[in-house]
Specification:
This protein has helices at 24-31, 34-39, 49-66, 111-125, 140-148, 199-206, 209-212, 222-232, 286-302, 316-324, and strands spanning 9-10, 15-18, 70-75, 82-92, 95-102, 130-135, 152-160, 166-175, 184-185, 190-193, 236-237, 244-251, 254-265, 270-277, 306-312, 328-339, 342-352. The chain is of the alpha+beta class and 362 residues long. The radius of gyration is 23 Å and the shape is elongated.
Length: 362
């Protein structure tokens, strides 16, 4: 079953979301493009704005409710406007198929590749173990999009197209590596992947002046919170397309902060870590417990060589936390960052794999 409750998903490159009636006119015009007609195998011979609205309210909504068919919008991350369509269908035995097309006005901007990476996370977080796709030898753009998302070319078969013509079909597949073994339960905390329902709790933390002061972000509005959570939901592990892991910190059932780990050098396994904890819960070692756990995960699960943390030099609480978590003070950069109207100093902390003994509580 496709867990469409995970939508919308967002990255810097694309947004993947359910269709809305405002998308209907752009969908209908994109669907009339000859390349879409030739390659996307849309079920209807033609589409109008009214027929697409009817589909959104009918078959498309029913497919989402059943969880076996997701006809989704690929939206522009800056405007949220429709740019193309991505369909997940044919779910069976852990496998689901993806199809996609872009409106001709929006091709060549990386939106299709970005949306496919988000579809990979949707399928993975829905519990599927394999994503498949089919294309034809002459469709080089779609092959490139599939290869960029990590799909491997499988066998080629012969089939009969809707036109009656015999075609060669190239089968592509992507084995969905399991997500990081989360949630992680520590003595007092539960560290788990983000979900949309976390947005209000995180907004209450990130909108505080004392939290935002030393972060690069301005205090979060509700819209900021939804946007950030939609992005973080795709950060399911360092080996995924996002090369990042974003976890919320839960204490006694409440969200009290978050920890993120992301690769800064994919090949050499170098990462950076960042954290935010609700000041209402500070002073009890909860952040240290969360950061130690994620560092251990980074070294043991992902074989990291080094993890760094950077912070505003005035952020003494964060510097103490880095030290308590076993990181060493490595540098003080003077006025290297322009933030919120002033030059600020940055502290760099780091920890190496060789400084961590496997299995030990850090
Ligand atoms: C296939 C399609 C979705 C790609 O959309 P897009 O917006 O160009 O996709 P992206 O910008 O994300 O990526 C396109 C990639 O293909 C490459 N590409 C585009 N045309 C190409 C061509 N003729 N030959 C080789 N590579 C090509 C681009 O350079 C880019 O690769 P890069 O990121 O390494 O530079 C779009 O062309 C389309 O809608 N075609 C009609 C429907 C269709 O074919 N759907 C797929 C059915 S399987």
């Amino acid at each position: 079953m496709l867990d469409v409750g995970l939508l919308p998903l967002r990255s810097d490159h694309a947004v993947l979301r359910t269709m809305r009636s405002v998308d209907a006119s752009a969908y209908a015009s994109g669907a009339s493009d000859p390349a879409v007609r030739q390659h996307a195998h849309l079920p209807e011979p033609e589409y109008t704005e009214a027929s697409v609205v009817a589909l959104i309210e009918g078959a498309i909504r029913e497919g989402l409710e059943r969880g076996d068919l997701a006809v989704l919008t690929i939206a522009d991350p800056a405007t949220d406007a429709f740019t193309g369509s991505l369909v997940l269908f044919g779910a069976s035995e852990g496998s689901v198929e993806a199809g996609f097309w872009m409106h001709p006005n929006h091709r060549g901007k990386g939106l299709a590749a970005g949306a496919l990476a988000l579809a990979v996370e949707l399928a993975r977080r829905s519990g599927f173990t394999r994503l498949v796709a089919r294309t034809v030898p002459e469709n080089k753009a779609s092959q490139r999009v599939l290869e960029r998302a990590g799909f491997i070319q499988g066998e080629a078969t012969r089939d009969v197209a809707p036109s009656g013509q015999e075609v060669v079909l190239m089968h592509y597949l992507l084995d969905l590596k399991p997500i990081t073994p989360v949630p992680v339960q520590t003595e007092r905390l539960r560290l788990r992947l983000h979900q949309h329902a976390d947005a209000p709790a995180l907004q209450r933390i990130y909108c505080r002046a004392d939290v935002a002061r030393y972060l690069l972000d301005e205090p979060w509005s509700e819209t900021d919170a939804s946007r950030h959570v939609s992005e973080r939901m795709t950060k399911t592990g360092l080996n995924g397309a996002s090369t990042a892991l974003a976890l919320v910190i839960e204490h006694e059932g409440a969200v009290i902060g978050d920890v993120q780990l992301w690769l800064t050098d994919i090949k050499r396994r170098v990462a950076e870590i960042g954290w935010v904890l609700d000041p209402a819960h500070s002073g009890r070692g909860l952040a240290t417990e969360a950061v130690r756990t994620v560092l251990t995960l980074g070294f043991e699960q992902y074989s990291l060589h080094r993890v760094a943390a950077q912070m505003d030099a005035r952020n003494e609480a964060s510097a103490r936390l880095a030290q308590r978590a076993g990181m060493q003070h490595e540098a003080h950069l003077r006025q290297d960052w322009w933030n919120k109207g002033e030059w600020t100093d940055t502290l760099i902390y780091g920890v190496l794999a060789t400084e961590v003994s496997p299995g030990s509580p850090r």
